[in-house]
Amino acid sequence: MTDVRETGWRIAETRAALAGEVAGHVRALVEAAVAARGRATLALPGGSTPAPILERLDHAGLPWDRLILTLGDERWVDADHPASNIGQLRRLLTGPAAAAAVVPLVETVATLDADAEAADRRLSALDWPLDLVWLGVGADGHTASLFPGAHYGRAIDRRNPARVMALTPQSLPTEAPFPRLTMPLASLIDARAVMLVATGLEKRALLDEALAAPGRSAYPVARLLEAAPVTIFWAE
Ligand code: 6PG
Fold first, then answer.
1. Of 105, 137, 204, which is best to mutate to test ligand 1, by the most ligand atoms within 8 angstroms of its C-beta?
2. Does residue 48 contact residue 173 with C-beta atoms inside 8 Å?
3. Ligand 1: which atom is nearest the Cα of residue 50?
4. Ligand 1, residues at Cβ distance < 6 Å
5. pLDDT means over runs of 10, the chain (236 residues)
6. Whose CA is nearest to atom 10 of ligand 1?
7. Model confidence pTM above 0.90
8. Which residues contact 134 (CB under 8 A, 6 or more apart)?
9. Backbone phi, psi, residue 176, to 5°
């Protein structure tokens, strides 16, 4: 059962203010991690919501050379494909943030299973728990690439030790119709902080529903919200 007291909402007046609040939150987490352990490891999301926030973070004075960046999920495409999350990250973080170490989930597309195994090995070598897992949520209630499909049960199984697994959505999302590599739920919550950033009334209603009765909600994001405390940043 979700302890809603732990899952906190940070609601911003505008999307510009949201970017500032998220950037401030990330900066505080990163500075604490670097002070305590000398470096910080962050798993970032794909999609469109993070773009303005990452651009702001790039010039927010973070100790980028002490940061290791990876992704909570990735579309199974080459890094130079327009739909690639790591490609988007590299296109967005071109300022001081370019000094960060980047650990992709997909380097070159070979076979889905072999690429998932290679990504699992790469992420298994990171410092766990991660310092921050930053997620978004889709209009269908997916988060990371936790989509209903053949491997969904394993993806949300809290005993799944994999750091990355392959998952082909039952119905490929129109905005990114590709098989996926994703951190499974157990890894997504193996973090000192889990943050979800969303915008728009539709996603607010979806998250309210998932939080109201997480055990009854079929949304994949409800599995996350009932599994760990999540800081939700939202603006209309
Ligand atoms: C991806 C993301 C995904 C994203 C949601 C929300 O690869 O698509 O990691 O989980 O966070 O789809 O995307 P938007 O921010 O574009 O709404």
1. 137
2. no
3. 15
4. 45-49, 73, 75, 85, 136-138, 142-144, 176
5. 62 96 97 98 97 96 98 97 97 98 94 98 98 98 96 98 97 94 98 98 97 91 96 97
6. 144
7. yes
8. 26, 42, 43, 44, 45, 50, 72, 195, 196, 197
9. -155, 75
Torsion angle of the four alpha carbons 5, 14, 219, 154, in this order, in degrees rounded to the nearest 10: -80
CA 19 to ligand 1 center in whole angstroms: 16
- According to DSSP, residue 66 is labeled G
Residue 71 CA, closest ligand 1 atom number = 9
Res 213: pLDDT: 86
Q: What is the 3-state secondary structure (H, E, C) of 121-173?
A: HHHHCCCCCECEEEECCCCCCCCCCCCCECCHHHHCCCCCCCCCEEECECCCC
Ligand 1 pocket test: pick from 145, 147, 182, 219 the residue with the most ligand atoms within 8 Å of its Cβ.
145
Assigned token pair, 23: 């950037």
With vertex at residue 123, the alpha carbon angle to CA 182 and CA 148, rounded to the nearest 5 degrees, is 10
